[in-house]
Amino acid sequence: MRERPWGFVVNPLAGSGRGWQVWRALEQLLVRADVPYRVWVTQRPGEAVLLAREAVRCGVRAVVAVGGDGTVHEVVNGMWETGVPLGCLPAGSGNDFVRALKIPDEPRAAWSRLSAFRVRPLDLVRVNEEIVVNAAGIGLDGTVAAAVNRSRYKRWLNRMRMGKAAYVVGLLHVLARFEPLSVTLEVDGRLLRFPRTWLVALCNLPFYGGGMNICPFAQGDDGQLDVCVVSGIGPGRLLALFPHVFRGRHVRDAAITLLRGKEIRIAVERPLLGHMDGEFTVAATWMAQVLPRALMVL
Ligand SMILES: Nc1ncnc2c1ncn2[C@@H]1O[C@H](COP(=O)(O)OP(=O)(O)OP(=O)(O)O)[C@@H](O)[C@H]1O
Q1: What ipTM does this complex have?
Q2: Does residue 130 surpass a pLDDT of 90?
Q3: Does residue 14 line the site of ligand 1, with CB under 6 A?
Q4: Domains of the chain and any CATH numbers
Q5: Whose CA is nearest to atom 18 of ligand 1?
């Protein structure tokens, strides 16, 4: 009997067209190796949620997201409750999810890793009504995510294979306009107040924004959510601190508070831009709850 097919959900526009290139390269590999597969290609934003659901209905052995973190986010929201494993072939600008899982960037190497079919459990996080697989953030980082997603420079940088730099450009672009604000956090029932807060990052895995190691100690299977609050400094010190985030060295600074918990509630004084796996959204209250080992990943 022929084995169950692999299911691929492809965002052709991820990484400004890299999604399609990666898929074409992979498809040749699959055909040559006689690997059974089915493919669903997105035609609009948000569609990967439905296509992932459809793939599971068709009985695939795993759903592989071909795209960036936004595609992974949508695919997971479509299939996390089904018990079918998730795979990912990186083709986006940031690719922070695969960075944390140490999946190689090169499609052939990534496929060779996925096709070994070793699965491990990963925690997920419910943030308001959505499922987050990598990280969410509110404040400056949400505003940056929104600016980058709308920008032209993201496309240019992607074309030059410098997609990761888009978030750095985005930060410089947004910093001058962003007003820090008071934030109230409740971490497993413990109430904390932070004046003059730039951002609150909620991390299941350590990286976001194209390689920023914002919560270096986050582990995706520890049943806990790592939180990084940046507060109490001016824009100059924030800029000086920024280069250190790529190596996770920002955590030594007094402006950084690291917290950890299973249930986190954030209230802010005005509705604020935030992001969930790099896709932006607006809210004044954020409820985050860890769903321990809710997803199997390849
Ligand atoms: N066919 C499509 N046309 C337009 N937008 C799409 C289409 N398919 C998916 N999208 C949207 O593209 C957005 C970006 O996708 P994705 O995050 O995978 O790539 P990226 O932004 O290049 O990578 P990263 O998030 O890793 O920086 C998502 O918001 C998704 O909803």
Answers
A1: 0.96
A2: yes
A3: yes
A4: 6-118 (3.40.50.10330), 130-292 (2.60.200.40)
A5: 68
